[in-house]
Amino acid sequence: MAPLLHDEAIVHMNLRLSAVATAIATVLALSAHPVNAQPAPSVAEEGNAGTVIGQVKEATRGVYLDGARVTLNGTQVVTQRDGSFRITGVASGRYRLSVDYLGYQPQEVEIEVGGSRGVRVDVTLRSTAIATDAIDLERVDVRAMRDAQAMALNQQRSSVNYVNVVSADLLGQFPDNNIAESTQRIPGVSIERDQGEGRYVTVRGAPKEYTTVSIDGVQLANPDSTTRGVELDTIPSDVISALEVTKAITPDMDGDAIAGNINIRTQSALDRDGMTLRASAGAGRYQLGSGDNERYNATVGNRFGADRNIGVLVSASHSRQGRFTDNVETLYQQFDDGRIMPTEVQIKDYEGTRTRTGVTGRFDFRIDPGNLVYFIASDSTFKDHEYRDNLIITMDQHTAASTQTVGNVRATFDKELRERTYDKNIRTYNLGGEHYVGDDWTFEWQASQSKAEKETSPRMQYIFRSNVRPRMDYDYSNHDFPIWTILGRPDAPATGVDLPESWFAFRRLNDRYEYGEEKETGLRFDADRKLDSIGDEGSIKFGLRARLRDKFFDDERYRNGSVADFNALGITMSDMLCDSISNNFGYFLAGRRFCRDIFRNYAGPLQDSANHQRLIPDSISGDYRAEEDIHAAYVRLDGTWDKLTMITGVRYERTKTHGEAAQYNEDTGEITPLAAGRDYGHVLPSLHFRYESGPDSILRASYSTALNRPDFMHTAPYRTIGELETSPVAEGNPEAKAAYAHNLDLSYEYYIRPLGLLSAAAFYKRINDPLFVATHSEDIGGGLSRQVTRPENGDRGRIYGFELAWQQTFDSLPAPFDGLGIYGNYTYADSRADLPFGEGSTELPGTSRTNYNLALTYDKYGITARLAYNYRSKFIQSFDVESPELNVYWGDRASLDLSASYALTDNWRLFAEANNLSNTKQVRFQGQRSRVLEMESFGRSWLAGVRYEF
Q1: Which CATH number, 3.90.78.10, 2.60.40.1120, 2.60.120.280, 3.40.50.2300, labels domain 42-136?
Q2: What pLDDT, in 10s, does the model give residues 923-934?
Q3: Which domain of life is it from (predicted)?
């Protein structure tokens, strides 16, 4: 069988490489030699009288500049993403129009506004890193990292409320696999990981559910059935234009963002002149297990039409990662006499393959300078196929002298293999438009749909249990690497758990299928009118919003525990084991691993047997359906008084929920449908100030309000039961309230010429009715208990802290040191909230006291390099209300990553990336570091390849 599998793998690899090669060939076939000439500003009569319009772009690649400041006769506007600007109500006369953009040489243009026609001004800016006489050279030394940093800083500078912007080009300099990992480089943003890879995002120490995620303003549906926190590991990092993190929301934004909103902005062909062509291919290895590490992407876009006003762009990305993880877990429990002792150990080997595929397409039609219609579609798929070998040690009958550190127990051993594949998909469609009507009105509209699916199939598990239950000593003096000694068995190892295979007999075959789906349909309409009565310049903006979301989850479970059925196969557990050895961390020796084909070879007869039965309680009680309809209206006022700008307004959101689940009576077999719902409203005021104390100094202050609604599954009266009798139980709580937050933000930014930023920000959030997922013990008889988890409200909570950031290019240093730069930020956050049931207070889940990034960069002579260090301190994950000593924490973690590239030509570049150079482990613990709940290692990884860009 192995040669056939090998041939299939080669075929699949060849197909994948052929597809990438075709994409790259297409890029090359369509490319042409770039033109480095940089034209002088273009001035022409166009449009309505008294109106000045135009665009601003950079000289090297023809990319339009978002966030450039355009000043005319005391009026200042900011360019949009396509570099466009618009100034109305200009009297006839001669003027000087000035354009300022950090990192680029400013320009002034003489214009004359007549009485019958308007004026169009197109300006091209040159980077300050390019000498004046360099524009006549055949080749211009382009600094990719520097240009990317400039674009992000200018967009951030122009915002009234507090926003962090990171461009895709800048993110591309970090060795990140997905969007979640890209966000960790932003001040105040940290991530939660799964097997070492970023998955969930937290902002400013708040729970992950406090942050919303959108693509071009469309909130993403979520494939996860258990939380509102979006699994951002689904989305590749190669298909975006920029990340915008809004930490102080305005009235025109959705209100369910206590910590903030992360908006993923897609690329547009109208973002630059001419054709957009990019492609890259890379391959490498993961140190642990020598798994493959592959990544490919390609982007093709162009402008069409007589006026080049139609843009079409398609971007695609594919990656494949063979990930291996060493994992050891110990579960601690508090007994009636107050002692806390270990009760279960799991030694797990993870071996899997993760693939991501992302495709984004965008169509833009600039009908005329005042009207734009666009359609955006994106599709991101994440597939994780995984084998998990597991040796489980259940410890009971602790002796009286046993403690947390040392003791004697009766031990039961289970040996299992689980094969699990899940497919996650997030798909969005977005149709919208922007329209200027006359000199005073602007209208925007959007119709969207986002759909997420997650299917787990197969999820099968063989379990074998030891037929002996010996006494065993344990010693956790070294809590990371404990010692277990089995007593009274001459056939047992002297120490450790490399157990005789003859001890084990068939226990059961578990078979499980899960499917979850979430779909949101969104409608939005905004109207903006200029008002001369508010300051020097003012406007009123108002709009309506509807978000209609449906979610359901189905869990089907089957089991065959017939020893006779297994014996009929004519094999023992030893026949299902191969030569590979489980030896996690080079210490936890747990014997031979299972062969990977045992489900294909031996599961069929067990599934076809009459003893393969549906677990009705488990398959029914965990299913749920939830609906949430949100209708909102807002009004927003903007005003400018010289250097002071204000945004104020109020938003009203009405929420209607409905949830359905079922209960199963095991005694009667009766299924009882249950339903619950709520209807409630919230008023969300906000006030933002921006004061420009100098040309490059900005002070911002904000007050805003926001919500955190309960997770969708918690609005339904469901109850899920684990695979084992003592497995944890989760249940809904339809009566849980939405948390409501009052947010205060204060920030100061100083923009360093030619390119850099020093900033400081402080924040405070007061939260009413904070939501907790709280755990308590439930007695199930026979001296056994299980943990029950459900959402509950505390009374109040708060989060406060500050952020510091510094990024700068050192252009003034003598060569070759003028290519150096630094990128660093530090965040301190502290939280406290009242626990449910009057059980005291604790930190909110996700709050790390300290989080910081430090990156040293170099960008010159065709070399682009970045050495990046990221640190996050410990944070609480979940709560045990009855035994706070056993609250679960993620330990602190640091990582060191390196990326570098070298420009072979103007278009071709070699690149290399290395992750987790410090080989950092990840640790979870219960209450204190000496009670290690989980320790896992995933090793280093590296990738090298070639990139083409035109």
Answers
A1: 2.60.40.1120
A2: 999 999 999 999
A3: Bacteria
